[in-house]
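Fold Annotation — chain and its backbone

Fields — amino acid sequence, structure tokens

___
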Amino acid sequence: MPARLTVIHDGYARDDGVASSVVHVADGTSHVVVDPGMVRDRSLILEPLASLGVAAEAVTDVVLSHHHPDHTWHLALFPAARVHDVWAVYRADQWDDQPAEGRRVSEHVTLIETPGHTPQDVTTLVETEHGLVACTHLWWSADGPEEDPLCTDAAALHEGRRRVLGLGVARIVPGHGPAFVPDASTPR
């Protein structure tokens, strides 16, 4: 059975605040949270998880797309989780160096390296019954900006976009907006 992905918080980047898109993935016995970053109140992460029947202590894995605070702020809500980033897997006082490229977080959740926004960006790929979903900061939202205003490497960002779209993703969960279905107008 493929994984079940739920966007538990739609991110945004506006004049009145910034918040990351936060995702929960149920994959067998694994509970994965992607980008538990800044939100107006931590209840905006914990309450949707509770409504899914998932306590913070039951989260097995947390994936950080990159290390900006707006994507990492609430990491400590999940004290039992393994934490995945581009460099390693961390748990308690253990640091296991391993590249993110191709790393299996769970049976249906895989990481790939997609630098551009930062040199350390990763995309989380989730196999669901509705197709492949990419949780990524290669796009801020479906509405743009077309060019990432904080991009550290535009060529890498555009290559990452082409790579992810070339995988035939059914949906994209961008860094700061609701999930969307990519089409011919999606920036490459």
